[in-house]
Amino acid sequence: MGLNTHSKRGVITRSMRGHDGGKEFAMDEQTILAERRAGYHVITLNRPQRLNAFCEPMHHALRQAIDAAERDGACRALLLTGAGRAFCAGQDLNERVSKNGEVKVLGSALESHYNPLIRKLRALPFPVIAAVNGVAAGAGANLALACDLVLAARSASFVEAFIRIGLVPDCGGTWTLPRLVGPARARALALTGDALPAEKAETWGLIWKCVDDDKLIDEAHRLCTHFASAPAVGLALTKRLLDESWGNDLDAQLDLERECQREASLAADYAEGVRAFLEKRSPVFSARREV
Ligand code: T3D
């Protein structure tokens, strides 16, 4: 098994022998493309022939690419997208059938891969932007919804496909869906497994924005470029506050805001922000964050 990681013009490849629905196969695919831009990283799920469905090597490569972004003190945003016509079709179902044709009991991949992935994305100290270029189904849909900002191509759709094969939503879907669209719509999406077109997803508040297909990637890069020169401590603390608010009452949240505001004010970016405002110029925030 070989793993090569290049963090600059990035390619993460893994060669291994795998098992696919009863067939042994030789696999040598670049399941993830990772690229480092000025101030942000781009990760592309890259199994277009399977609509970027998750396989074991892709999980490992994705984890490495995210870790590299986290370790890079100059990284202040992460862009996640898919190659080809889909964003991600969730778990590769070929991996869920054993050699003798039996389906496997599930749970361990949530523990080892999906849950750590979602926790990691939520905890990253910079915004994660999903550019949903096509269908996002199953874990692929909920992966997108775990990101901080979701941009979607007009032709994209979101499918809580789990129920179609007798499963339940995972990757935090039962947590994010009702919070984003309310209980009635969350239940309809999860219980029917019907596809929700991107325009409706925007109207419902499931995602931030729906844009024309040919504008998606430019718009996503524009957003990342904006974050690349934004105040890093403020971004990290804002993420934390919004996430923790779900478990807090107003009193606890007010206390947390006080603490975070104090912490933000200790950062050089705050002093620069105030000075720049008073001097009627654009602020120049520090190019690196603490790692
Ligand atoms: O440990 C655990 O497993 C627990 C974790 C579970 C997480 C999950 O994500 S469970 C849910 C898994 N995902 C799905 O059930 C979605 C399956 N896919 C679809 O329903 C449809 O493909 C889509 C709605 C996403 C798109 O439909 P369409 O008509 O645009 O494309 P298609 O023709 O169905 O798919 C194109 C190809 O991709 C096709 O292969 P082929 O015939 O061209 O060789 C299809 O088999 C393949 N593909 C799509 N999704 C998957 C897949 N192959 C493997 N696994 C997939 N999930």
Question: Which SSEs are present, and which pair or pack?
Answer:
Blueprint: E1 2-5, E2 11-20, E3 23-37, E4 40-45, H1 56-71, E5 78-82, E6 86-88, H2 108-123, E7 128-132, E8 135-137, H3 139-145, E9 149-153, E10 157-159, H4 173-181, H5 183-192, E11 195-197, H6 198-204, E12 209-211, H7 216-228, H8 232-245, H9 250-266, H10 268-278
Parallel strand pairs: 4-5, 5-7, 6-8, 7-9, 8-10, 9-12
Antiparallel strand pairs: 1-2, 2-3, 3-4, 10-11
Describe this structure in words.
It is a single chain. This protein is an alpha/beta fold and 291 residues long. The protein folds into 2 domains: 2-228, Alpha-Beta Complex (2-enoyl-CoA Hydratase, Chain A, domain 1); 232-278, Lyase 2-enoyl-coa Hydratase, Chain  A, domain 2. 41% of the residues lie in helices and 22% in strands. The protein has 10 helices and 12 strands. The strands form 2 sheets. The protein has an 8-stranded mixed beta sheet, sandwiched between helices. The protein has a 4-stranded mixed beta sheet with strand order 6-8-10-11. Strand 1 (2-5) and strand 2 form a beta hairpin. The two termini are 30 Å apart. Residues 50-51, 53, 89-94, 96, 106, 109-110, 135, 137-139, 159, 161-162, 164-165, 167, 170 line the site of ligand T3D.
